[in-house]
Amino acid sequence: MNQWKDVITVAAVDCANDDNNPLCREYEIMHYPMLKFFSANSKPDHMGVTVNKGKNVDEARSTLVEILEKEHIEGRGIGWPNIAPYRSSDIKNLWKLVPSSVKFIILIFEDTESFIGTEVILDLHHIDSIQVRSVLNQNEAVSKLMGVSTFPSLVVVERNMQTFSLSVSDESRESFRKAIRSFLQSRHISIPEEEPSTSPEETHNMEISDLLSIMAAEEEKKKQQGIKQMGDIVFQVDLEKAVAYSLQHEVSSFKLISGEAFTSLKDYLNVLVKYLPFSSRGVNVLSNLRNAVFSHANDIGGERVLEYLKKFDNGDSSVFSSHEWIGCKGSKPQYRGYPCGLWTLFHTLTVNAVLQNQQLDSLEVLNAMLGYITYFFGCQDCSKHFQEMAARSMHSEVNSPKESILWLWKAHNEANKRLSGDVSEDPEHIKIQFPSRTNCPTCRNNDDFWNIDEVLHHLKQMYGKSNISYIGISSDKRPQEYTLSNEESRFAEQFIANDGERKRLGWNFNFFDISLCVVLYAFSATILVLVCIKFVMRRRYRKKLYIHDILGKV
Prior knowledge:
The chain is 47% helix and 6% strand. It is of the alpha+beta class.
């Protein structure tokens, strides 16, 4: 739609960016991706119209085309090209009010459900020598007059009313554009060059072209390989980051939380306080936040929740300070991260609720998870699928606390199966039916069916409080009884801790060390070049030779 930018502008807002939180809250962005349309000349306080995003880019574009057509019919967009279908039965009216610079009118005959006409009109409206119009198959008079019997078709009308058809290779928008451009080139009519677009992959490649970024990327790859070798392991950093993101971004994005959403928020905070393995400082922060939210009778603003969190979690000992994902880190920023962290969080809650043996209701954690995902989880499609899974089997299959662990495991594997091969899948972390044979050889029988008892044992081991890794957490914030295992110690120095531990790269260098090396290297090379230039200049200089220099002084 780049060629349409004088008609409609497309912009993106990252609601995960803290700077954009007030904007996203103001415009009530509750899930993603959310498309909002602002009509021509809309007032500043207009909230926009939520647009159905469809299943893919083509469907989203078609929806926007429908909206533009409606806007045009209602009299907005006066300076736009004429995207209304030609409805007159007399083709002589075609040339009325057409500028003298236009040499050809190009008619696209199409079905009522087609969007090719409007799209091509918007694509080519910058070409002054033509005017593209659409004609629907309902206009039988013009279709018969032009000899059109198949739709879509392409017909050129000259000023002297001579007409002829243009052939297209297929029924795609691109084929129609190509046919029109080829025709204009055959008539030696200049065509504005289309502005090239840079793909995200090309942009990414340009961004990592410098030396330090390449070195950092290589070391990050090695680090992730090391994490993989540690097997199925949960990192406290990932749990803290998931909780922080859910409260600081998703919950806080609501203008007002009320009704069932408010109940779901209270249930979510309750299971966090009761079952999440946190330091005493972390438990205090969450307990204070829960009590503050519970003090509101019927509703609370999302911004108010954020204010409470900042009040209870501040200073140098902040629990939810900035961390990088470790176990949930994707090979690129768009992969894994928070969705992985949320799965990890709720697996940890279901397991530790059972291990603590304090859960009175077998569905307590799962109901809290369902409520959170229904009302707060930003990914709309993910939320819909999880609600469908819960409605189908959660209440019928969970009759004991341990069954809540197994139900969530089955649901997670069902989601993995659905998303395997999806564009959202990280190629370095493909979706599998977990646990893998490598990480749990006894979890499958010889017939490849699951050994449920072994799966349950593996999940308790993986997500249990005593097995959580504190790599990346500064030593003063780890439990006193916790010590790094030998395997963890091999990787501990690769992560930043809040107490100032350095992020290590290969050869025991950190980013500052490498930056200093590069600067010194460049400085040394510059000095060497200057010395060489000075030497060459001195060699070129020749002292004037006098006779007494040869014979000696008399």
